[in-house]
Design brief:
This is Glycosyltransferase family protein. By secondary structure, the chain is α/β, with parallel strands linked by helices. It is built from ten helices and nine strands. The longest helix is centred in the last third of the chain and has 15 residues.
């Protein structure tokens, strides 16, 4: 049986919405709500929160301690190194990568991405590279060997900050797998980068969680269909804004 761990990266010092991972939703920090959803997956393995040694991230460490969650503190901006060092402590065969701004992550989708990865013996598998799911349901899984190769060879700041671009950009070196939804719903935005994003996610939790703590991707879609104004409430923001900003900064550095 292959050893799998799930590493969820989280930091308190978000540039767009500081402290968002600890914003309360129904009396629990958003981070804990997300972890509880991940635990409903059957294939996720050990869950590790990868935060940084920055003084502000001590708040995340305290949250983990209070809730019995395993954590690792590494470099703030070199998240690739943070992932590699955290994973090295467990020597897994595969690592699931999630981010702390996606509290609606669906455990069934996590399992489907993992199973696709294992069945195809891929080096890297995701449902986000050619997105068909709402932004905020992104799942990545990769072999430890792929992570190690990226850790050794990646030099661009964007590669170090966003962990996996080196892997999927070099698809001649890595075998890439994909999971697609039957319907393209990539226009929907269920991630938290801005206050309007959090307001939407909080409303979804408040309306669905009391009746079914394990509410699913389909339950959210049904709720949004019943409240169509929610479909576009936050679509003024684009997908992967942080990555695009990092890529632009790399281009400026290369021209200097």
């Amino acid at each position: 049986m292959k050893k799998i761990i799930t590493i969820l990266q989280a930091r308190y010092s978000s540039t767009r919405l500081p402290g968002k991972v600890l914003f309360p939703i129904l009396g629990q920090p958003m981070l804990i709500q997300q972890i509880n959803r991940i635990k409903n997956s059957t294939l996720h393995g050990q869950i590790v929160i990868a935060t940084s040694t920055h003084y502000e991230d001590e708040k995340i460490v305290n949250c983990c301690k209070e809730n019995g969650i395993t954590y690792y503190c590494g470099k703030l901006d070199d998240v690739l190194d943070r992932f590699y060092q955290a994973a090295s402590l467990y020597q897994p065969d595969h690592i699931v990568r999630l981010t702390g701004d996606c509290p609606l992550i669906d455990p069934q989708i996590i399992d489907e991405v993992i199973q696709t990865h294992l069945d195809g013996n891929f080096d890297y598998t995701t449902n986000a590279l050619k997105p068909t799911y709402p932004d905020g349901l992104d799942v990545e899984i990769f072999k430890f060997s792929a992570l190690k190769k990226a850790w050794i060879e990646a030099t661009l700041n964007s590669d170090r900050e966003h962990v996996t671009p080196y892997i999927y950009r070099n698809n001649d070196q890595f075998n890439i797998g994909h999971l697609y939804n039957d319907i393209d719903l990539s226009h929907l935005r269920w991630t938290v980068d801005w206050q309007i994003d959090f307001d939407l996610i909080k409303r979804i939790f408040e309306n669905l969680f009391p009746y079914n703590p394990r509410f699913t991707f389909s339950d959210i879609l049904q709720f949004i269909e019943s409240n169509p104004e929610l479909k576009t409430i936050n679509t003024c923001h684009t997908r992967n804004e942080g990555l695009q900003k990092s890529l632009q900064e790399d281009q400026l550095i290369s021209r200097a």
